[in-house]
Amino acid sequence: MINENALAAAKAAYDIEAECIVTMKEYFDEEQFSRAVELLSNAPRIGAAGCGHSGIICQHFAHLMCCIERPARFISPAEAVHGATGFLQRGDVMVLASRGGKTKELLPIMEICQTKGVHIIAVTENLESPLALGAEVVIKQYVNRETDKYNMQGTTSTTALCMLFHALQAAVIEETGYKSEQFALIHPGGAVGERLNKKSL
């Protein structure tokens, strides 16, 4: 068995992240969220970018959008300023995620999108940050603390970001009338694909 402190830390992680999600719901802004859902539901293409842990969750978000047939891709901040923003055209949507809203690698991407007429959705905890002020829509992130004792690893913050993206996908499914039969066609693999395709027979 591991030591008692390690077990206590593990159990506390559940409580920390659960509290974060419950509290974050109190910051839910229906107007901003609705606008984000409208943009995502109607965009020809969707981009997503973030650095570090936020970037990893943005990759997940892009895949979530593709799974409901909203064409999307993760755009690496490093590649974005070397031509990858050519993926986005006027009327498309770019989702930029940064807890503090000051991630330097994202600010040039925001400027490119503004010039090209690409809609910008920012997900950040800091509503006064450069990212929030430059975005068309801002989704408020909330983080109580990270789960490690030093409050430094991207744990609770990634769970919070992931939760917001899951909420957006759930709403876009309703807004667009997306059907499980559509998902069955593009997801024949794995247990989920097997279950869905059995239903469609």
Structural overview:
This protein is an alpha/beta fold and 201 residues long. Helices cover 54% and strands 11% of the residues. It has 9 helices and 5 strands. The chain has helices at 4-24, 30-42, 52-67, 77-80, 107-116, 130-134, 156-176, 180-186, 190-200; strands spanning 46-50, 72-74, 93-97, 119-124, 137-140. It has a 5-stranded parallel sheet with strand order 2-1-3-4-5, sandwiched between helices. Helix 2 (30-42) packs across helix 7. The radius of gyration is 18 Å and the shape is globular.
Q: Percent of residues in beta strands?
A: 5-15%
Radius of gyration: 18 Å
Terminal CA distance = 49 Å
DSSP E strands, number: 5
Q: What is the number of helical segments per DSSP (H or I, 4+ residues)?
A: 9
Shape: globular
Helix content: 40-55%
| Arithmetic mean pLDDT | 94
Helix-strand sequence? HHEHEHEHEHEHHH
State the secondary-structure class. alpha/beta
Low-confidence stretches: none
Largest sheet, if any? 5 strands, parallel
Strand order of the largest sheet: 2-1-3-4-5
Put the structure in a nutshell.
With 201 residues, this protein is an alpha/beta fold.
What would the keywords be for this entry?
5 strands; five-stranded parallel β-sheet; globular; 201 residues; alpha/beta; 54% helix
Describe the secondary structure blueprint for this structure:
Layout: H1 4-24, H2 30-42, E1 46-50, H3 52-67, E2 72-74, H4 77-80, E3 93-97, H5 107-116, E4 119-124, H6 130-134, E5 137-140, H7 156-176, H8 180-186, H9 190-200
Parallel strand pairs: 1-2, 1-3, 3-4, 4-5
Helix pairs in contact: 1-7, 2-7, 3-7, 8-9
